[in-house]
Amino acid sequence: MTHRGAEPPDGTGFLAVRCDVTDSRQVDRAFEEAEAAHGPVTVLIANAGVTHDRLLPLMREEDFTSVVDTNLTGAFRVARRAARGMLRVGHGRIVLVSSTAALHGAAGQSNYAAAKAGLVGLARSLTREFGPRDITCNVVAPGLTDTDMARALTPEQQSELLRRTPAGRAAHPDEVAEAVAFLAGAGYVRGAVIPVDGGAGLGH
Question: What keywords sit in the KW lines (predicted)?
Fold first, then answer.
């Protein structure tokens, strides 16, 4: 699980490790700590994401590259590191959390949409690469979801997204988690993109 804040969440049954996915050394250390406690990581959910929204003429190069480095290259880093243990034990599940912005585009989010679209190509390439091995890689593409990121949108942006959503409301985070959990246990679903968008894309 991921957690925002200075301290890890309270409760038993969790091992909390800190990791900046833009730093390969931190990724290695996080996996080493998890592996020391629990053995090889066989289920990976790549969910780290940031936004720096600007219209293209106003977007700085660092606005673009920093989003890609976290949202796409960060997923590559953790998937590459997780694959070592998965290949060693002969099975694994990788779920990449993308966005419907990857499928439709979004004004002011060319960096975010491009990075999230890259996750689809990454998942399908890994599906080809792992072939007959029992290692799957799939994508969940949430639409408007009740998170801090969505609450940062303007009321006009939220209203427009809701207008295009047959469900008439934002997703609850646990509804996205249900799709992730399904893919984490589904051995014969590979290279799929599952929209969790209340019907906004009508299956894309």
Answer: Oxidoreductase
